Amino acid sequence: MVKSTRHAKYELYYHTVFVPKYRRSHPTGKTKERLETIFAEICENKDLELAESEVMPDHVHLFIGSPPKNAPSLIVNWVKGISARKYNQRYDDRVKWTRSYYVGTAGSASKGAVEQYIAEQEGGKE
């Protein structure tokens, strides 16, 4: 769904993947549920849309929608840093993430959507 800010229309989604440090911890069971809750909290606080989240035993997949003002690297740093900090403050077991991550873009800009945007601009709408 196309969203808007004061000066932009956008449909930006990022697929991010990151792994636990040393791949030793296996986020399953309660840990998995706790992490999914924390990821949702972070996205809500940062005005991001958490479209999908999947915590696997050896990695995490997140599909996050964001306004264009947020760089993909910033979003990943927020999610990894804040989630580790919140999790480690709340629970006895520890979560640590590696420094590396994958991020890919996903979105749809069909010919019709671009033509509609141009038509709206010609009509004086902003």
UniProtKB/TrEMBL annotation:
Superkingdom of the source species: Archaea
SUPFAM superfamilies: Transposase IS200-like
Domain Transposase IS200-like: 9-121
InterPro entries: Transposase_17 (IPR002686), Transposase_17_sf (IPR036515)
Protein name: IS200/IS605 family transposase
GN (gene name): tnpA
